[in-house]
Amino acid sequence: MNHRTVEGIIESFFMESGDSKNLTIAQTVQAVSDKINRMPLLLKVAMSLFVFAFNVHGFIKTGKFFHGQTAYQRNSQIMQWRRSSIRPLREFIAFYEKLAFFVYFSKESAS
Amino acid sequence: MTKEEIISCEILVIGSGPGGAITACLLAEAGRDVVLVEEGAFLPLPSSKPYSTEEMDQKYRHGGLTVAFGKNKIAYAEARCMGGGSEINSGLYHRPLPQSIQAWCDQFKIEGLNPSILQRHLEEVEKDLTVSYMPEKLSSPSLKLQQGAERLGWRYTETARCFKYEKRSDGEWIGKKQSMSQTYLPRAIRAGCRIMPNTSVIRIHQKRKHAKYVTAIQTDHMGNKKKLTLIFHELFICAGAVQTPYLLRKSGISRNVGNSLRMHPMIRLAAVFPDEVNDDPGVPVIQIEEFKPYLTLGCSCSSPGHLALWLEGSLQERQKKLDRWKHMAIYYVATTPLGLGQIRSIPFIQEPFVSYQLLPQDMKQLGEGLYRLGQVLFASEATELILPIQGYESVKTLTELEDFNKRGVAYGAAPITAIHLFSSCPMGEDESKCAVDSYGRLHNFENIHLNDASILPDCPGVNPQATIMAIARRNVKNFLSIIPRAVL
Predict the structure, then answer these.
(1) Which band of pLDDT confidence, cut at 50, 70 and 90, is reported for residue B43?
(2) Which residues of B touch A41 (CB under 8 A)?
(3) Given phi > 0 = left and psi -120 to 50 = alpha, else beta, which region is B192?
């Protein structure tokens, strides 16, 4: 479930592009997922806990886990964490966002 | 796992970065029987584009996702490949400040070292690495920094690089970075050093303060693992500021080991100029010297991917800003904090736990650095600064940065990174705080020597490769003069 949630978060950052089949986006999602799998164990455990909490929060609010939510619900949940007054929640979103955009724009400029 | 293999040598060197490579090379060239083990792979320098995601996947530990925990997390870069940090760094070469060397000698009681002694070793390293200046016009991001510094009356310098330049037939200069894989490692191999990439040392086995052997795991290209036992007379550990203390601590050696990690924390921002400036695929060479060693201002790699890291907003918002990426460049401030970090080994977790405590005065110093960076960039006609700090995503006047100068950067407000780590096993005769003696030998051990960034006593305040290699060279020369060849 965590893996699908993380992929869902990364895909959500690119939702507004309107082109869900864009190869660069697909490559970005895969590349970021691969990078996250290589994280140090302690960081991976910490991030997994946050992903779990993110999913639970979404379930409480919408009755669905993140990867089962609508695009609107997903964006709404990401925005809520991005603007949270709780620093770790903001950092959680910022981490995936920065990584995703770094990979995406690196791939886009290389192609 | 296949059957265990036993390998014997006179001297085992662990780690092939700037410290390990020069150590293995000089020992082998002196006729010693040397084995050099490296956890990472032996990859050609151009196996990936510098600063690309592919390079991070191939040559960085954990693909580049390494973090020091603390009140403000610090993302740091650590290489994991033959040649170590020299394969992924910018190649910038900066001699240590003489006053820093003298202060280290005084505060840590280092014998047989002073700025003029170190200079001899620096000169030899510089010859070996072809340290030189750019043969042609500096890149535009560099020139902007230079322009700003001149207008403010600040001292600046063009930092030399470990690059060999050749002129092509069409008149274009081509520069090739002189990393360890291009210099000391080939020399070490020619001198008979046996190198073993993809070999991770698990533990040092010692008896009565004498290291006997290490156990290691070697992985082949198919992913098959083999257990190795490496027996030696002398051991040099050159695995870097994090891995050296980690290996020692998990082997039960912990006195003054891993308690005093230092870094040069950095904050980056993107500057926007009216003219096109982004013409340098590498790291520009101009650095502001005015506030060294406690503040360094310089330029970073400014590819679209790197620029995207420091922008905020949605995909469309970033795309819109990046349409003008040629008008943008990334600049940084690096500091020499008072805070310290620790490296710890946790049972059953096969990775070090790294923490770092930035003190309030360190955050104040970073704030001052941001302000100074703003000063020099606005003086060079930047029209906008984009900071990765909420509320400062578009700064158009220096006044908007005054708060940073007065109050510093709040914890957690800005992403802080570090590419220079050291001092986790400091050298010197002061046994209350030093892990190794004046020449890198582990205190109270007969035959364990450290010879990498971990033994620098404190932040050099400049790019550290020159300092690491000159001190490593000095230590190896001393070793060769006092430790006779062992009878195998």
Answers:
(1) very high
(2) 349-351
(3) left
